[in-house]
Amino acid sequence: MTWLYPNLRKIGLLYGDSAIFVRREIYQKIGGFKPLPLFEDLDFVRCLKRAGKIANLSAIVTTSSRRFENRSFILTFLRWTIFQCLYWLGVNPNRLAKRYYPIRHPKQ
User: Fold this and answer.
1) Which of 56, 43, 41 is CA-nearest to residue 9?
2) How far is residue 90 from each of residues 12, 39, 69, 103, measured CA to CA in Å?
3) What is the reported pTM?
């Protein structure tokens, strides 16, 4: 993921754990984060892009990797990618969240 995330930024993909900084007036103009159960960060970034240019800083940010702990990296990444593609294809985040919930909260 250390290699992947910086390269995703190059093609314009940003996520909630990308340390997004936004001016207050822009945040208020786009209505902030919508109360979506899933992919609220992708929706937020899409709205930011519509509002104007996004600048990327070459800073290092450390985030949690707990979604990958005690799980297959490949399977977890594949699920994440499929759900994100479904979101971009227009599947309602509420519908996706019903299927994604067991992934976030696996049975112990």
Assistant:
1) 56
2) 18, 12, 29, 21
3) 0.75
Tokens of 93: 């985040």
Q: Where are the beta strands (DSSP E) in the chain?
A: none
What stretches of 1-108 show up as alpha helix (H) in DSSP? 4-10, 24-30, 40-51, 73-88, 93-104
Is 79 in contact with 102 (CB distance < 8 Å)? no
What does the alpha-carbon distance between residue 92 and residue 88 come to, in Å, rounded to a whole number? Answer: 10
State which residues of the chain have pLDDT below 50: none
Q: What is the pLDDT of residue 104?
A: 52
Dihedral pair phi/psi, residue 85, rounded to 5°: -60, -40
How many angstroms separate the CA atoms of 104 and 71, rounded? Answer: 11
Find tokens 């314009």 and name the residue: 12
